[in-house]
C-alpha cells in the first residue's frame, strides 16, 4: 500500500479543545485541518520531513517563524500569500509544526516552502523513545480583503489533500533532527557519522 494523505482533524473541530484547556490554552475550535502522510501504522516516520510545496503560480512569504527542536513549544510556522488575477481578496496559506522553513521571499508553484515537523503543541508529544511522535501539518486557509482582517476558511474548499503534489523523497538529512534530539547529539555529529558510513561503503569498508 502506498503512502497517502490522512486527515486527522477537520476544520472547526472541537475534539482537542479539552486537551488544550488542560494545557492552559483557550482554543475552542480548530481553524485549520491537520494531516499526516503514510499509513495509520507508519505515519509518524513518513510524515516528518515531508515537503510542503507552493500550490500557487506565485506566492510571497508574509510570515516565517522558525521552530525549536522536537518537544519544544516553539512551533515552526509560515504563511504565504497569493492574490488571483482580477480579484482583490488575498489567499493566505499557513502551516505550523514545521521542522524547517525555506528562507526566501517568493515561491513558484511546486517549489518547497517548508518541511513537516513535530515541534510546538502536538499530541502525542515526542519523547526520546518516540522522537517522531506528533508530527503533522496544521494547514490553514484565510481570505483577506484589503484593509480588513482575514477570515479563516476550510482548507479543503481549495486544496485536494487526497491528490497532493508528489515530489521526490526529501532524504534522510531532513529526518535527522528528532534522532539527534533524542540522543542528545548535534545534527553535525549525526552528519559526521553518516559521512563516515558513506565513505566506508564507497570504499568497500577498507
Describe the structure.
- This protein is of the alpha+beta class and 206 residues long.
- It is 17% helix and 30% strand.
- The protein has four helices and ten strands.
- Strands 1, 2, 3, 4, 5, 6, 7, 8, 9 and 10 form a ten-stranded antiparallel β-sheet that branches.
- A hairpin with a 6-residue loop joins strand 9 and strand 10 (151-153).
- The longest helix has 16 residues, at 187-202.
- The protein starts with a strand and ends with a helix.
Task: Describe this structure in a few short sentences.
This protein is α+β, with helices and mostly antiparallel strands and 206 residues long. The protein is built from four helices and ten strands, in the order βαβαββββββββαα. The longest helix is centred in the C-terminal third of the chain and has 16 residues.
Structural class: alpha+beta
User: Any idea what the radius of gyration is?
Assistant: 18 Å
Residue share in β-strands = 25-35%
Helix coverage percent: 10-25%
Low-confidence stretches: none
> Got a strand count?
10
Largest sheet: 10 strands, antiparallel
Q: Give the count of helical stretches.
A: 4
Distance between the termini: 39 Å
SSE pattern: EHEHEEEEEEEEHH
Q: Given the C-alpha coordinates, what overall shape results?
A: globular
Mean pLDDT: 86
List keywords for this structure.
206 residues; alpha+beta; 10-stranded antiparallel β-sheet; 4 helices; 17% helix; globular
Give the secondary structure arrangement, pairings included.
Elements: E1 4-9, H1 17-22, E2 33-38, H2 43-47, E3 51-53, E4 58-65, E5 76-82, E6 90-101, E7 106-108, E8 112-116, E9 137-144, E10 151-153, H3 176-183, H4 187-202
Antiparallel strand pairs: 1-2, 2-9, 3-8, 4-5, 4-7, 5-6, 6-8, 6-9, 9-10
Amino acid at each position: 500500500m502506498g503512502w497517502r494523505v490522512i486527515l486527522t482533524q477537520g476544520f472547526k473541530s472541537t475534539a482537542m479543545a479539552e486537551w488544550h484547556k488542560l494545557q492552559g490554552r483557550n482554543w475552542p475550535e480548530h481553524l485549520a485541518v491537520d494531516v499526516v502522510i503514510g499509513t495509520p501504522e507508519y505515519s509518524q516516520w513518513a510524515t516528518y520531513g515531508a515537503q510542503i510545496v507552493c500550490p500557487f503560480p506565485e506566492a510571497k512569504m508574509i510570515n516565517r517563524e522558525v521552530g525549536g527542536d522536537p518537544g519544544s513549544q516553539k512551533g515552526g510556522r509560515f504563511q504565504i500569500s497569493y492574490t488571483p488575477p482580477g480579484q482583490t481578496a488575498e489567499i493566505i496559506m499557513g502551516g505550523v509544526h514545521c521542522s524547517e522553513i525555506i528562507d526566501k521571499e517568493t515561491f513558484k508553484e511546486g517549489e518547497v516552502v517548508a518541511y513537516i515537523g513535530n515541534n510546538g503543541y502536538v499530541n502525542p508529544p515526542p519523547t526520546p523513545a518516540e522522537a517522531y511522535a506528533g508530527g503533522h501539518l496544521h494547514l490553514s486557509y484565510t481570505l483577506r480583503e484589503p484593509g480588513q482582517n482575514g477570515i479563516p476558511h476550510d482548507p479543503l474548499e481549495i486544496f485536494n489533500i487526497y491528490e497532493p503534489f508528489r515530489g521526490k523523497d526529501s532524504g534522510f538529512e531532513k529526518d535527522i533532527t528528532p534522532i539527534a534530539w533524542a540522543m542528545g547529539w548535534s545534527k553535525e555529529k549525526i552528519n559526521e557519522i553518516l559521512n563516515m558510513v558513506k565513505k566506508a561503503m564507497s570504499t568497500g569498508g577498507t
